[in-house]
Amino acid sequence: MGVLKKFEQRLEGLVNGTFAKVFKSEVQPVEIAGALQRECDNNATIWNRDRTVVPNDFIVELSTPDFERLSPYSGQLGDELAGMVRDYAKQQRYTFMGPIKVNLEKAEDLDTGLYRVRSRTLASSAGQAPGAAGPAGAPPAGRPGGYGYPPAAPAGAPPMPPAPPPGGRPGGYGYPQPAAGQRPPAAPAPGGRTRYWIEINGTRHQISRATLVMGRSTEADVRIDDPGVSRRHCEIRTGTPSTIQDLGSTNGIVVDGQHTTRATLRDGSRIVVGSTTVIYRQAEG
């Protein structure tokens, strides 16, 4: 069972089903959980072959209506989201510099249904925290370890790079935010045609035709066994650029953190259907 599915099931059992109401809001907790996973992936910093450090302190910015819906449950929701990040990090073999925290904040510039995730790597100031990597100890003010800075390297560790690792997407504190819904294009390999595929729970599905339909039906090109997925849920069309179109599904689609009915896809785009995350990939050659 995937990390997001386990997270969603835990939420359903909290506070005698109170979260069932929250799930009807414009921004669903499972969307935030998926965005936190992406934040870890996009800001992972490799120290050595056995150690990849990811952010541990997260702020989720919500529109005023969504914040008002979710804020009464912010403590429990923050704990559950932190637990999801911990489970995902364990699955990906990521490590932390300190305890994991997830806080909700209101952002006046966001419309209903939109959100932003910011993160930083913050060292623990009191002993080794579970999941932390290396010796604890908060850095001095204005030094590495704050928002937008890589974590300070412990004695004997290789120096940290001054910016995200090659291929990493800017967007952590201190780095320029990409335009909404955009991701940097993949570096093309010299020559050859473009190959397209999707990855679901570690399984690769090649896209060999111009279109690919995902859904719960056995007639779909890629069948997704998820009760939150419609029989014909959405369709990917490959090209320049590739796009995804919702096919009138019950629960809709989320692409790179945005609820939408149609979106442009780029290499690495994450699509959430039901409680399943689909990663779109393309490469030259």
Automatic annotation (TrEMBL):
**In this protein, which residues make up the domain named FHA?**
212-260
Specify the species: Streptomyces griseoloalbus
Q: Which InterPro entries match?
A: Cell_Proc_Reg/RNA_Proc, FHA_dom, FhaA_N, FhaA_N_sf, SMAD_FHA_dom_sf
SMART domains linked to this entry: FHA
Cite the record's Low complexity compositional bias ranges: 126-136, 175-193
Compositionally biased intervals (Pro residues): 151-168
Question: What lineage, starting at the top, does this entry show?
Answer: Bacteria, Bacillati, Actinomycetota, Actinomycetes, Kitasatosporales
According to its UniProt record, what is one Pfam family this protein matches? FhaA_N
Q: Does the keyword Transferase apply?
A: no
Annotated keywords: Phosphoprotein
Q: What is this protein called?
A: FHA domain-containing protein
Where are the residues of the annotated region Disordered? 124-193
